[in-house]
Amino acid sequence: MSKAKAPRRLKDNEARAVLRTIRVSPQKLNLVAALIRGKKVSSALADLEFSRKRIAGTVKKTLESAIANAENNHNLDVDALVVAEAYVGKSIVMKRFNARGRGRANRIEKPYSHLTIVVREVEEAA
C-alpha cells in the first residue's frame, strides 16, 4: 500500500515555479526579484524585458514558467495573475583561489542562488 498523497501547499488560485542553482549571488538576484514583487504579470514581464541586469532574462524565463504552470496545470486566467511572491535562497558556494604576491593566495567565493516565484489569480474589483 502506498503513502497518502501530500496535500497541495499552495492555495487553489496560486501556481509557482522554482529555479535552482543559478550562478549569481543571492543579493544581486534579490534586487531583480524585488523589481517584480506585487506587480501584475504583464507589467513584470515588461520590466524584466528592459532591465539592464544580466540575470533578468533568467528571472523572466522563471516567471513565464510560473505563468504556464498557472494556465496549464491549474486552469487560472493569465490576465488576472499577479506576482504574489518572489523570493531568493542561498545555494552552494564554490571556493576558488587566486594567486597573489609573495606566494600568498586569496580565496574567491562564487555563490549560487535559488529563485521561487508564486503567481496568484486575483478577482477584478467591480
Automatic annotation (TrEMBL):
The keyword Transport does not apply. PROSITE patterns: RIBOSOMAL_L22. Keywords: Ribonucleoprotein, Ribosomal protein, RNA-binding, rRNA-binding. It comes from the Bacteria. One of its GO terms (cellular component) is cytosolic large ribosomal subunit. GO terms for molecular function: rRNA binding; structural constituent of ribosome. Belongs to the universal ribosomal protein uL22 family. Part of the 50S ribosomal subunit. This is Large ribosomal subunit protein uL22.
